[in-house]
Amino acid sequence: MKRFFALCLFSLSAYIVQAHAHHAFAQEFSVELPVTLSGRVTKVELINPHSWIHIAVVNDEGVEVNWMIEGGSPNSLFRQGITRDTIPIGAELEVFGYQARDRSNKAVGRDISFSDGTPLFFRGTQVPDAPQ
Amino acid sequence: MSNKRLTVVTTMTAVGILMNAPLAAQNETWQMPRTSWGAPLIQGYWSNATMVPMQRPADLGSKEFYSLEELQENLRREFEDEYGETEAGTAADVHYQFDDYMMNKTADNITRNLRTSIIYAPANGRYPVLTAAAQASMADYNAWRAEHQWESAKTRSQSERCLIWDQEGPPILPLGYNSTYQFMQTEDYVIIQLEMIHDVRIIPLDGGDPAENSLPQWLGNSRGHWEGDTLVVETIGYSGRTNMPGLRGAPMSTDAKVVERFTRIDDNTIDYDFTVSDPTVWESDWSGNYPFNAIDGPMFEYACHEGNYGIVNILSGVRREELDAYEATGKIGD
Predict the structure, then answer these.
(1) Which among A23, A111, A124 has CB closest to B310?
(2) Which residue range is the domain that position A40 belongs to?
(3) pLDDT for the residue B14
(4) In the predicted model, is pLDDT for residue A2 greater than 60?
(5) Domain residue ranges in chain B
(6) Has residue B111 got a pLDDT over 90?
(7) Chain A, chain B: beta-carbon pairs less than 8 Å apart
(8) For residue B262, what is the enclosing H or E element?
(9) CA B215 to CA B231: how far, in whole Å?
(10) What is the pLDDT of residue B104?
C-alpha cells in the first residue's frame, strides 16, 4: 500500500508547478528572447543549484555553436536513479526556452525532449492502477 | 473532462486517503524504537515536504483543521487554479520544466495532516504583528533593495549567494523541494544535516546553557535534552541576519529564542513542534507544527557554490541591458 501511495504521489507531482527555485529565472533569462533549438548533447552537468545540459547547435550560418540549457536541481533525479549518464553524449535534443538576458548562448529549458519526442526525465507520468 | 484533469482528480482521491491520518492517531500497539542506550530512535532520513502553507488563508479564521472533504476540494482548487501550466510568452513561463526534474512539494513524500496552516498560534494561524522596529527595518531593506540589488554579487539574496535559505531555521520550515534531512544520533549529540543547502546542526545533549557558546551563528546555538520521549532543543545566539520566509529585511534578532520539540510518534513520523520568541521582531510569540516523514536514503550532496552560474548570468544580463540602454540613449542610468 505504501508503494501505491508513493506511486500516486509521484504521478501527482507531474502536475504541480511551484515557485521555489534558487533564483528568479526571469532575472536571468528574457521572456522577450524565446528560442527553439535542436542540438546534440556534448556535456551534462547534474550539479547544484541548477543542472546544465550542453548541446551543439548548427546555427543559420551552418556553423556549430555550443548552447547551455539550464534545468532543475538534480537531487530528486538522483533519488529516482537518474544520473548524468541517463542522457547519453551525442543524444539529439529539442529545446524550447528563453535566452539569457546577456544574449549569450544560454537558455532556460522550458521544454526539453529527445528528438523522438520522449520527455527528458519524468514528465507525463500516469496514475497507476489501484491495487486490488 | 480532459485526460489531464481526470488524472488530477483521480490523484486527488489518492492524496485524500493518504492524508486521512491525523498526527495524534497513534497505533496503540506501536512501540518506540530505541537506541542501545535507551533514547527514542530518531536517526534516519526524513522529509518535511508538505502542501500545508506556512500561514492560514485569512478567510479560514481560527479553523485549524480541514475535514477530509474540505482538504480534497482545497487541493483540487490549488492544483487547477494555481499550479496549472504556464503560458508561453509570459514571465511566469520563464522556468525549466518542473515535473521533468521532480521539483515540487510531493516528489519524495507528503505531509499527512489536515492542518490548514503550519502556524497554529496565534489562533488565526498567521504570523503575529511585526514590531514597529521590524516594520521599519523591512521598509528600509526594500528601499535599499530597489536601489542596489543589481549592483554586485554582494547585493544579491542570501540564498542566491549560497549562504543560507530562509527555511533553514531553527525553526526548520518546509522549502518545497530538496526536503530531505538526515538525523544522526549519539548519546551526547543529535546532528541534523539539511539537504538544502547542506548545512549541519550539531546539538549537544549535555543539558548546558546555549549561552555558554555565545559566538553568533546563522543557525544559532542549540542545546538539547530529552523530556520523556521528546527531544527538546533550545536555540539562541542568532547572528541577526537569519531571515524567515517572506520576511526579508526583518531577520531574527540576536535576542531570538526558538524551542523545538521532536517526538517520534510511529515508524514513519516525527511530530515537529516549535515556538519562536523574538520580542525585537514580533509583538507576541508564535508556534507551528508539522510532521517529518520517513524516507529512504541516502541524501545527496547539494554543493551550492559548485555550479552557481546563475548569479553570474543575472548580473551579466543586467550589465548587458544597461549597455543596450546607454547605446540607445547615450545616458547612463535613469
Answers:
(1) A23
(2) 21-114
(3) 38
(4) no
(5) 3-294
(6) no
(7) 226
(8) strand B257-266
(9) 24
(10) 65
Please check whether residue A127 is in contact with residue A13, taking contact to mean a CB–CB distance below 8 angstroms: no
Please tell me the pTM assigned to this model: 0.86
Residue whose grid cell is 507525463: A124
| Nearest-Cα residue of chain A relative to residue B196 | A49
Task: State the pLDDT at residue A28.
Answer: 93
Q: Residue A40 is inside which H or E element, if any?
A: strand A29-45
Chain A contact probe: residue of B18, B103, B112, B311 with most A CBs at under 10 A: B103
Out of A8, A47, A120, name the one closest to residue B306 (CB): A47
The domain that contains A41 carries what CATH number?
Answer: 2.40.50
In a domain, A127, yes or no: no
Overall domain count for chain A: 1
Q: Answer with the residue of higher pLDDT: B13 or A27.
A: A27
Cell of residue B321, nine digits: 541591458
Packing angle of the helix pair A2-13, B3-19 (nearest 10 deg)? 140
Q: Nearest C-alpha of chain A: how many angstroms from B81?
A: 11
> Are B307 and A47 an interchain contact pair (Cβ–Cβ within 8 Å)?
yes
Mark yes or no for CB contact B310/A100 under 8 Å: no
Q: Do residue B159 and residue A23 have CB atoms under 8 angstroms apart?
A: yes
Question: Any CB–CB contact under 8 A between B77 and chain A?
Answer: no
Q: In this structure, is residue A67 part of a structural domain?
A: yes
Q: What is the CA radius of gyration of chain A?
A: 16
Residue B212 has pLDDT above 90, yes or no: no
- Interface residue of B6, B77, B83, B102 to substitute, partner A, most A CBs within 10 Å: B102
Q: Residue A124: inside a domain, yes or no?
A: no
Query: CB–CB of A16 and B14 under 8 A?
Result: no
Is residue B305 exposed (0-12), middle (13-18) or buried (19+ Cβ within 10 Å)? Answer: exposed
Residue of higher predicted confidence among B77 and B43: B43
Instruction: Give pLDDT, residue B80.
Output: 62
As a whole number, mean pLDDT of residues B253-262 equals 97
Q: Is the pLDDT of residue B6 over 50?
A: no
Nearest CA in chain B to A125: B99
